[in-house]
Design goal:
This protein has 245 residues and is α/β, with parallel strands linked by helices. The protein has 12 helices and 8 strands. It has an 8-stranded parallel barrel, surrounded by 4 helices. α2 (21-31) runs parallel beside α4 (51-59) and α5 runs parallel beside α6. The structure holds cytidine-5'-monophosphate.
Length: 245
């Protein structure tokens, strides 16, 4: 065990990218004192459903449903209400669904949170997936902007639509803060400390660099979940962030 720093804890989003509920529960139990939010993605959810949500609610752990909604506004609004009912305090949707979809989602989620007397949800827009290159944008999708420009366009739209923030790469974080303001939240995946395995990720950044660029939330996955000693890996990440706070 090591000392909890609440300022760092609130930034840590741990990706529960495991196969079974048992493995997820083990990670949550071991790391909950050091993690602000646990992230449940589509891979885990489509295999295991929401059982782990119940577990997190019981032990008071916050969770982010990384569900990336996109549909007509009314459907997304209803789904957003249900997500809040499930106990998630964070969720996301595609900015490409347009402003009306984002507005309806935020409306549904916030009204439901009020009705249930739970915390106001953090609602994040996915801008351009990091798997989409400038070439794919122009040649396949016929979009006349670079990925960075388009991220900026969509981040502004998300802000105007009343969302809390966006999911983006560390390399876009500074620009988003410049155009959308310091209060507009940025959640960044692709985080790797120098000592960690790189895996299949390409555009990686260290935790310290991410914080310096203005990231509010850091998605930590294999850097901790694939480490032999997970607590020790988390401690090293805490120390690295502490050095730049
Ligand atoms: O293990 P690793 O740190 O690479 O985990 C990254 C997590 O962030 C995974 O859950 C992955 O789906 C997610 N993610 C990502 N890159 C994006 C968006 C989400 O790696 N652009």
């Amino acid at each position: 065990m090591f000392k909890i720093n609440p300022k760092i804890k609130e930034k840590i989003v741990l990706a529960l990218d495991v196969d079974t509920v048992e493995e997820a529960k083990k990670l949550i139990t071991e790391l909950k004192d050091y993690v602000g939010v646990f992230k449940v993605g589509l891979q885990f959810y489509t295999a295991n459903g929401g059982e782990v949500f119940e577990f997190m609610k019981e032990i008071g752990a916050e969770f982010f449903f990384d569900v990336k909604l996109m549909d007509i506004p009314n459907t997304v609004k209803k789904a957003s209400e249900n997500i809040i009912k499930s106990g998630a305090t964070f969720y996301n949707l595609h900015a490409l669904g347009g402003s009306e979809m984002m507005r309806q989602s935020a409306l549904g989620a916030r009204e439901m949170a009020q009705k249930l007397g739970v915390k106001e949800p953090t609602i994040l827009a996915v801008t351009v997936l990091t798997s989409i290159s400038d070439e794919i944008l122009s040649e396949e999708l016929k979009i006349n902007q670079t990925a960075l420009q388009y991220v900026e366009t969509l981040a502004k739209l998300a802000k105007e639509s009343g969302l809390t923030g966006v999911v983006a790469s560390v390399f876009e974080a500074r620009r988003i803060k410049e155009v959308c303001g310091a209060d507009f939240k940025v959640l960044c995946p692709g985080i790797r400390p120098e000592w960690s395995v790189k895996g299949d990720q390409k555009r990686l950044a260290t935790p310290a660099f991410a914080v310096k660029e203005g990231a509010d939330y850091l998605v930590i996955g294999r850097a901790v979940t694939a480490a032999e000693n997970k607590l020790e890996a988390m401690q090293k990440i805490y120390e690295e962030i502490e050095s730049v706070l």
